[in-house]
Design a protein that fits this description.
Helix content of chain A: 10-25%
Number of helices of chain A: 4
Radius of gyration of chain A: 19 Å
Radius of gyration of chain B: 24 Å
Strand order of the largest sheet of chain A: 1-2-5-4-3
Order of helices and strands of chain A: HEEHEEEEHEH
Strand content of chain B: 5-15%
Largest sheet of chain A: 5 strands, mixed
Helix content of chain B: 40-55%
CATH class of the largest domain in chain B: Mainly Alpha
Largest interface: A-B, 52 and 45 residues
Structural class of chain A: alpha/beta
Number of strands of chain B: 8
Oligomer: heterodimer
CATH class of chain A: Alpha Beta
Number of helices of chain B: 17
Number of strands of chain A: 7
Shape of chain A: elongated
Distance between the termini of chain A: 63 Å
CATH topology of the largest domain in chain B: Cytochrome-c3 Hydrogenase, chain B
Chain lengths: 198, 424
């Protein structure tokens, strides 16, 4: 693979430091992309941040992508370095049935709102994050709106979402995933509510 | 001084006298022994246990502390946002921002829209930098689709984007003063803003949500009205900026309420993800226009401006310096503007090949970026926006403990957040 000039030095440096990243390596005109397993995110990003030759000191973005009910989640980090004229994109794969990934808040405090948003919208649990609450939706909301199996109501007859009832989709609720340790409040609240209903 | 008059309270069942009086006065149940969790009833939410460690920390009151809600309809929260402020007397001890009052799910809506209509959906995000909101998705979609905008379109884009930056920064100066009780600067700010908004509505046909960018170009070429308004504005803009600056910069009250207030070090600012003018005011020379040049910025001459203070005053001075820089850039753009088409040939419904694209721009509030994924269909499979003011808000709980309540809003205004962008 011939990498564009902008990304060439970075690609060589990355492969020098982490030869095993070669499998998931991809570049376009101003981005270098690597793919890893979710559990590895903190270890890899710590080196990327602290190695003076790499120096990716700024977490530009952290976003979650849902690849569909039968596939996986991905947490995508974009990093900026003043040493390299390319963005670095790290795609961390997360098991969709049991979406857990280590938190990045120990490396960048500012990852907090990113992770709270991902938890709110996708239901990804960041282990070790000490403030994993919903950020946009209300605390008693239970669906994860940006998952692909959460469909929007749409009156266009040929839409894939035609005829779907709006808003909350109970089948996406899965509170058992939230362990007692992480969110005792949510589980207790849900149980109490379930008991109260006839 | 407790009054002996019995105030009838329908909710008062068997509370003791002090609890009843506090309730009438709108204060939380302060009889909580030190360290015991206070409950949410006092801040207007149904009582439920805290969900996280941090939430328990915020809502646990020590002796002499109480919780105060600022917002969601507080006039200086720059939109609808609630700050739960824990205070001991007048001194803030903790802040918990509660967001989501303006959440419209724009990302999800964009995933249901075609690539062209996405550019209309992003307009009401950060409603003071509408042109910037459209710029990043336009670049990302052009990368996905493999089309480039003609040179004249790129110049017009840079022109409107810099004009937008000038009016956004002018308003920031006004709002900052307004949150400290000064009315005059916001009026000067709006004079500047209205002239630019009229200019941009002449070129785009819309007053606020411009919907001007297209994949592969812009909607309209420049016209006579736009150019004549631009010329008139350019003749007196420096005088206008100086006028509003003169009201504030050396004002004694303004200086005493901004210097040394909300000081953020460069290291902390990077860790918190603060970007844009707020980061540069802390001395970090990170400007996306220089760091990852896009559009025509490589062809323009400018330096990254920084301040050393990192306090509210530095953030204000940074805005003024950037207004002057943007005017300088506008001069260069107008001088160099080439002739030609303003739109590339693009089909009505765009279906890019499957792929991913990331585009970041420098908005008036910082690093605004879009990550778009195409699966080959007519709408983006995933459309992600990183809004700078959302991330910058995390600095408020870091900066406020130990400061006075009245300074909370003044420091927040110096970060210039816009809730339309924060809540998406």
């Amino acid at each position: 693979m011939t990498a564009p000039a902008k990304a060439g030095a970075l690609v060589r440096l990355l492969l020098d430091r982490f030869p095993d990243l070669a499998a998931g390596l991809w570049t376009d005109e101003d981005t270098v992309e690597v793919t890893i397993e979710g559990e590895r995110n903190v270890a890899l990003l710590q080196v990327l941040r602290d190695d003076p030759e790499l120096n990716f000191f700024f977490l530009a973005d952290a976003a979650a992508v849902d690849y569909g009910p039968t596939e996986r989640f991905e947490v995508v980090y974009h990093l900026y370095s003043d040493r390299h004229p390319a963005w670095l994109r790290v795609r961390a794969r997360v098991n969709r049935a049991d979406p857990h990934i280590p938190t990045l808040t120990d490396l960048w405090e500012g990852a907090m709102f990113h992770e709270r948003e991902m938890f709110d919208m996708m239901g990804i649990v960041f282990d070790g994050n000490r403030d994993l609450r919903r950020i946009y939706m209300s605390p008693d909301y239970r669906s994860f709106p940006q998952r692909k199996d959460f469909l929007l109501p749409d009156d266009a007859a040929d839409s894939s979402a035609a005829g779907v009832r709006p808003l909350e989709r109970p089948e996406t609720w899965d509170l058992t995933r939230l362990s007692d340790e992480l969110a005792p409040g949510v589980v207790a609240h849900a149980e109490a509510e379930a008991e109260a209903k006839p | 001084m407790t009054s002996e008059v019995k105030i009838p309270d329908p909710l008062d069942l068997d509370l003791d006298e002090e609890a009843r009086l506090r309730r009438v006065a709108g204060l939380p149940a302060a009889k909580t022994p030190a360290g015991e969790y206070a409950g949410f009833e006092s801040v207007g939410l149904p009582e439920r246990p805290p969900q996280t460690e941090r939430e328990r920390e915020v809502y646990t009151l020590e002796e002499g502390e109480m919780l105060v809600n600022m917002g969601p309809q507080h006039p200086s929260t720059h939109g609808v946002m609630r700050l739960v402020v824990k205070v001991r007397g007048e001194v803030v001890t903790d802040v918990d921002p509660v967001l989501g009052y303006l959440h419209r799910g724009i990302e999800k809506l964009c995933e249901e829209a075609t690539y062209t209509t996405v550019l209309t959906y992003v307009d009401p995000m950060d409603y003071l930098s509408t042109m910037h909101n459209e710029h990043a998705p336009a670049i990302a979609f052009e990368k996905l689709f493999g089309v480039t905008a003609p040179p004249r379109a790129e110049y017009i884009r840079a022109l409107v984007v810099e004009l937008n930056r000038v009016f956004s920064h002018s308003l920031m100066m006004g709002f900052l003063a307004l949150d400290m009780g000064g009315i005059t600067p916001i009026l000067y700010g709006f004079i500047n803003r209205d002239e630019i908004v009229d200019m941009l509505s002449a070129i785009s046909g819309q007053r606020m949500l411009f919907n001007f960018f297209r994949v592969g170009g812009v909607n309209w070429d420049t016209n006579d009205e736009f150019l004549s308004r631009l010329g008139t504005w350019r003749d007196h803009v420096l005088k206008n900026v100086e006028m509003s600056e003169r009201v504030l910069t050396d004002n004694e009250v303004f200086r005493s309420r901004t210097i040394g207030m909300g000081t953020l070090s460069g290291r902390d600012a990077i860790a918190l993800g603060v970007s844009g003018p707020n980061l540069r005011a802390s001395g970090v020379p990170f400007d996306v226009r220089k760091a990852h040049p896009y559009s025509i910025y490589p062809e323009l001459e400018f330096e990254v401006i920084t301040q050393s203070g990192g306090d509210s005053n530095a953030r204000y001075l940074q805005r003024i310096a950037e207004i002057n820089q943007s005017i300088h850039l506008i001069d260069q753009i107008v001088d160099k503007m080439p002739h030609g088409a303003v739109q590339a040939q693009v089909p009505g419904i765009i279906r890019p090949k499957p792929g991913r694209a990331y585009a970041a721009i420098e908005s008036p509030r910082g690093l605004y970026s879009v990550y778009a994924i195409s699966d080959g269909g007519p709408n983006p499979y995933r459309f992600r926006m990183r809004d700078p003011s959302f991330i910058s808000l995390q600095a408020i709980p870091k900066l406020m403990p130990g400061r006075l309540i009245a300074d909370t809003m003044a420091v927040m205004a110096s970060f210039d957040p816009v809730m339309g962008g924060v809540d998406k």
